[in-house]
Design brief:
Shape of chain A: globular
CATH superfamily of one domain in chain A: Enolase-like C-terminal domain
CATH architecture of one domain in chain A: Alpha-Beta Barrel
Number of strands of chain A: 12
Helix content of chain A: 40-55%
Radius of gyration of chain A: 21 Å
Largest sheet of chain A: 9 strands, mixed
Order of helices and strands of chain A: EEEHHHHHHHHHEHEHEHEHEHEHHEEEH
Strand content of chain A: 5-15%
Number of helices of chain A: 17
Oligomer: homodimer
CATH class of one domain in chain A: Alpha Beta
Largest interface: A-B, 60 and 60 residues
Amino acid sequence: MDGGSRTVSRFVSFRTHDVRFPTSRTLDGSDAMNPDPDYSAAYLIVGTDAGDGLEGHGFAFTIGRGTEVQVAAINALAQYVVGCDVDAALADMGATARSFVDDSHLRWLGPEKGVMHMAISAVVNALWDLRAKRAGVPLWDLLSRMAPEEIVDLVDFRYLDDVMTPEQALEVLRRAEPGRAARRDQLLRSGYPAYTTTPGWLGYTDEKMIRLAEEAVAEGFGQIKLKVGGDLGDDIRRMRLARETVGPDIRIAIDANQRWGVGEAVRWIEALAPWSPWWVEEPTSPDEILGHATIRREVAPIKIATGEHVQNRIVFKQMLQAGSLDFVQIDAARVAGVNENIAILLLAAVFDVPVCPHAGGVGLCELVQHLAMFDLIAVSGTTDNRVIEYVDHLHEHFLSPAVVKDGRYAAPLDPGFSAQMRPETLQNYVFPEGSAWNVDE
Amino acid sequence: MDGGSRTVSRFVSFRTHDVRFPTSRTLDGSDAMNPDPDYSAAYLIVGTDAGDGLEGHGFAFTIGRGTEVQVAAINALAQYVVGCDVDAALADMGATARSFVDDSHLRWLGPEKGVMHMAISAVVNALWDLRAKRAGVPLWDLLSRMAPEEIVDLVDFRYLDDVMTPEQALEVLRRAEPGRAARRDQLLRSGYPAYTTTPGWLGYTDEKMIRLAEEAVAEGFGQIKLKVGGDLGDDIRRMRLARETVGPDIRIAIDANQRWGVGEAVRWIEALAPWSPWWVEEPTSPDEILGHATIRREVAPIKIATGEHVQNRIVFKQMLQAGSLDFVQIDAARVAGVNENIAILLLAAVFDVPVCPHAGGVGLCELVQHLAMFDLIAVSGTTDNRVIEYVDHLHEHFLSPAVVKDGRYAAPLDPGFSAQMRPETLQNYVFPEGSAWNVDE
């Protein structure tokens, strides 16, 4: 196997882990729909026989119970990876990603949505992590050095071509090409704007919220976010306190986490309007293309943001067509990974709608920063009205944690997708055997 | 346990089975997106300590690989069933179904879509099967004897109330109430109209298609369906042959199984228009609310049908709002079971759009007939332009197989939801240990 005639390296391992963090104990991450999440990851490590010691890491983000289902779904994709030619699979990531999405048996379990789609995300992202590590560069840099034609080849245009053909996507990318180098330099110097959700969890006391909001402003954030949607009286009080705390110039986004129906959303938002919310996030179901459009019309000029639970590029496309949103909130690990997110970044550029990624959870900040930075350099070419969410939880579990300073994400420099958890984390937080789940309370 | 003081019976068992049928060997079920399905079921049996020997059976329909993921998702719901009070859970099936949908951790894996939602379908349907068996009546009869108020209590109106409030749903049901008894008698006498897809699988030769189409007409079907979307030349030839075979008065539906983008759909349908397709089914992605509406406008008066892969009531609602379809094709096991299908039947009634259920697969005919018959008696009050799909495969595996005679479904009379597979089927087709998967070929 290791003799001179060996030319092809293959994927030889595909290991999954059910990793859960007991975040419900402190109400970090609590919102109107998710009162007690235990941030979790269905985590994947892909190994090869290349002998270079490099592995690809990826995961689907979950919030506790059911992570074992997500792990089972990732395992169902092992047959499409193990045994494959590593160089060939990584060189044509468009075809590789489509081989997962197009498996007709697995497609029946979606199609292109839910558990099976998030599993594809984990695998696709793990392969991109490996490709970037082999290239010795961070993923954002790898992607934003690719030729427009190569980038277009990554995208599955099925169900998109009524609003974006490959030629139109190519045009977007070519338009951004001349400025790439200058924007890369600027990114390395000054980073990418962030906003923080750390103050706003619904389970926090007013005092804790105020203290964290003050800290956020002191740290240089120009935008914070509050969770709303539990009780209107509480929301009015918290919104007023937050506005008094941060003053008129800091943007306060609010996030209902899908809590409302259409009419209820409009009434609730209008009640909070006196304190000038910058955007309202997930006012209703992520499946509500028409509902979001109605709410947006009714509450203008307050803006609408959504996307962390939008299942795929097909729904994002229609939200852009229908005028459902002012901000596209991509999530790194819900749609089918890097490839589908590139499709969504291109769609947003065609419609000239800013992308403000969803992050937080565990590892989502680490992942999604790469996509926003790629967007800046190679797609939209701007950070105008664009911010990446930041939440200050659980970064210590990663080998290359996201770094936010003065309210901005620093461009990650380590090779890969920043997806790799520390080995001791995988050991201590594995559910239910890990030491974190076997403490006396 | 069985003494005189015992008053509460509990769910004590929750057994899942990965059951697969090797249908790909004969190309039964082959279409443009699914060339080689192995019809499968993630199958559930729920047992109690009531001592009456009755169990609830339910399943999610899958097509082979990945059924183990679906089984894992059903298992994730065991904790909400085992140990619960049987009478209380079955008496308030609205609250019971919502307890599954509203679990915030599991909801993150959808929300309300894909593997996790289909798992809820299996559990909800198994509980309805048990409730109908305990009542000693077929499910259609149980449902259509319920008071309008009870039926409305089964529905989750979240995300629906911008187009249908509980009051409006109640009005629909009350309007249908006076004619219930007469329609029940009529149903028992003459059954419910069916159409057949048996002739139309894409993998069949022209000769087999023609022979089966002739048989369908001879058997009394007024509508057949052909799979299309593989190759336009083939589709034109098959459509022409089918029309020549059945003559001008038999309706020929065509089914693209999501194969096309919007523009391609319009061009393809126009090429087949000379042979007067009655409806075009799944011309594009089931997520395409706007795309279906565009196609429908462009190809009118040819009609559009979709729904077997529509993930939930929220998407159906929008399709009705947007004018995306002429026929609502509910599936018994993709949305969250009986309860969510009642919501969809009510929505369709509010918009006055006929419901023509999807069936076939394994067990879908058995299940969905109950919903269509309930619709006839208690909701829409009519069979005008309504037909239930019928496919003549795999019925022999059920204790109470669907019976179609003279092109009509006979109302099932056995107690329950007709969901129960024969014990020897569960034994022989369990994957991968069953004898059906261990034959010398």
